[in-house]
Amino acid sequence: MIRKTDLYSSYRLTSAIGYADLDKTMSPQAMKAIIAKAKADKDVGALGVDVLEAAYDAAKAKAGGAPTRGQVREQVSRAQGSLANEKAKGRINDGYIDSREAELSKNPVALPLYKWFLKKTKSVETDPKFLKAKATVAQVNQAAKALLPIVDAGFKLYDPKNDDGGDGLATALRKACNAAGLSSRGRAVVLTALNGATTRSDGGDAPSATEVKALITNAQSKLKLADGALIVDFDAPEEKPTSKKDGVITGLEVDRTPAVTGMTSRALLQFAATV
Predict the structure, then answer these.
(1) CA end-to-end span of the chain
(2) Which of 2, 12, 25, 101 has a beta carbon 3.0–4.6 Å from 6's, enabling a disulfide?
């Protein structure tokens, strides 16, 4: 299996086709030259060559003759889109793609592309400790509620005029967390949210308390979406997925819910489990 996010690395294959002269027709001889070069490229490999050949054949069939470079590249992109479409019939929208789902695609390039990704990507297993984490919706609400005033307290301690090193805000928030007797799990949520808000701020300016708190409340809302997620047994993907909407959110459910993205959500679940 692969993560849906792994699909973004298909540029390694399309770069073998090239970026220039996309409107130029690719004769069989030109394709053979590309294949010969691709075989020597460790980022492409034998399975990558299978993808390129399938893409060329598909483009040729659609064009009714020798296709252009752009048309061959397009077939790889279409296959990528087909694999990414988890709302297609028979698919499970869980952020993962397994062999059963790849075989459901009617795109002739999709399965070879899946096999290439499977070979090239690293293990997709999530930390087992996180998968076992669980908290009730009430615990998540309680955890988020407890953190918001601590964020406000941290911003009151922050003096931007005495922050030559640039880490003054993080230091202020740590002090507020310690003053409130917050555990390391709770502190991790606050600092993760700060990091996320800093990344999103314009011009590199320090984020506001409102922006940091928004990430925490957003994580709170997203975690609730995970309750009852469809869980596929990766050892038996052909079996019907299970679902248990019971007011308890598990790390496994979060991992299988594409809408629940961001490290703040994961940190909040782990903190809520201790509340």
Answers:
(1) 34
(2) 2
Taking 80 as the threshold, does the pLDDT of residue 202 lie above it?
no
Of the two residues 128 and 193, the one the predictor is more confident about is: 193
Give the Cα separation of 151 and 108 in Å (integer): 52
Q: What is the pLDDT of residue 167?
A: 86
Can you read off the two tokens belonging to residue 63? 């064009």
Q: Read off the pLDDT of each residue in 236-258 and give the average, rounded to a whole number.
A: 92
pLDDT at 115 over 70: yes
| Helical spans, DSSP H, in 27-84 | 28-39, 45-63, 69-84
Closest CA to 268 of 221, 225, 200, 227: 221
* Angle ∠(41,46,47) on CA atoms, nearest 5: 115
The rounded distance, in Å, linking the Cα atoms of 124 and 131 is 13
Alpha helices in 105-226 (DSSP H): 110-120, 128-132, 137-157, 168-179, 184-200, 209-226
Contacts of 212-215 with C-beta under 8 Å, sequence gap 24+, read: 212/151, 212/155, 213/148, 213/151, 213/152, 215/262, 215/264
CA 219 to chain centre: 15
Q: Give the confidence band of 122 by pLDDT, cuts at 50, 70, 90.
A: low
Cα separation of 130 and 186, whole Å? 15
Query: Quick one: CA torsion of 22, 24, 29, 30, rounded to 10 degrees?
Result: -30
Q: What does the alpha-carbon distance between residue 190 and residue 170 come to, in Å, rounded to a whole number?
A: 9
pLDDT-derived band at 121 (thresholds 50, 70, 90) equals: confident
Structure tokens at 159: 């003096």
The pLDDT of residue 200 is 57
Q: Which of 192, 180, 140, 181 is nearest to 156 (CA)?
A: 180
